[in-house]
Amino acid sequence: MEFENRVAVLTAGAGGFGSATARILARGGADIVIADIDEASAQELVKEIKGLGRRAIFVPTDVSKKADAQKLAKAAADAFGRVDILVNIAGNSLGGALEEMPEADFDKVIAIHLKGTFLCSQAAIPYMKQNSWGRIVNIISRAAFKPRVGMGAYSAAKGAILAMSRVLAAEVAQYGINVNCVAPGTALTKMVRHGFPTAEDQMHEATTSGVITRPVRLAHPEEIAGAIVFLCSTPSAHITGSTIHVNGGTFMA
């Protein structure tokens, strides 16, 4: 199996992108570490992965705290002996015009998205270096390339992760570690379903955002997961510092 003897750590691992990715990696032979603040959903996913015949643990994690990020990486290594794959998914979304946004809201967005990606990557890299192999996949967004009014903090955070990922890719390439990004458009995660609760709302979002694939619809989490898993796989070994867009043609790079 492609991921036999690999250990994958996923932040926000119990969410839409995380759980879909965890299932694919587990079916491919990986052992899974779920980092999240939603214990009930995480424990349910851990049980499901164990049912697939793989090992899995849950580590409660606030990615914006260095101690939690360090604890996460150590817990993975202590449980399974190594860290091979890190998928940085954890994020939040606090909208509003930048002119009016409270400083605390801006800080919360930056802390989870940008600082969390930085801290978790920093914590995982020493373990990857031990085996001269690693894959870091950072979830950014179409918003990093095609900003949206009212999403200034989110767009800023995702754009910063993109820039940081490229620098990190250059810094760790010598250790056999690849760093890439996946940039989804609007996808049917729990958070998006809350904002677009009806089929009509979702179709309006797909249409107005410019989806050109057929049928016109929002992305499914499994489609984002497919891109993530590809960047962890053998066929992607010569790809680093790059971004895969999964957005139905709403932004073309």
SSE map:
Blueprint: E1 7-11, H1 16-27, E2 31-36, H2 39-51, E3 56-60, H3 66-80, E4 85-88, H4 103-130, E5 134-139, H5 152-172, E6 177-184, H6 190-195, H7 199-209, H8 221-232, E7 243-246
Parallel strand pairs: 1-2, 1-4, 2-3, 4-5, 5-6, 6-7
Helix pairs in contact: 1-8, 3-4, 4-5
Structure at a glance:
By secondary structure, the chain is an alpha/beta fold. 47% of the residues lie in helices and 15% in strands.
Report what the structure shows.
The protein is α/β, with parallel strands linked by helices. The chain has one domain (7-188, 221-246): NAD(P)-binding Rossmann-like Domain (Rossmann fold). 47% of the residues lie in helices and 15% in strands. The protein contains 8 helices and 7 strands; from the N terminus they run E-H-E-H-E-H-E-H-E-H-E-H-H-H-E. It has helices at 16-27, 39-51, 66-80, 103-130, 152-172, 190-195, 199-209, 221-232; strands spanning 7-11, 31-36, 56-60, 85-88, 134-139, 177-184, 243-246. Helix 3 packs parallel to helix 4 (103-130) and helix 4 runs parallel beside helix 5. The radius of gyration is 17 Å and the shape is globular. It starts with 6 loop residues before the first strand and ends in a 7-residue tail after the last strand. The mean pLDDT is 97.
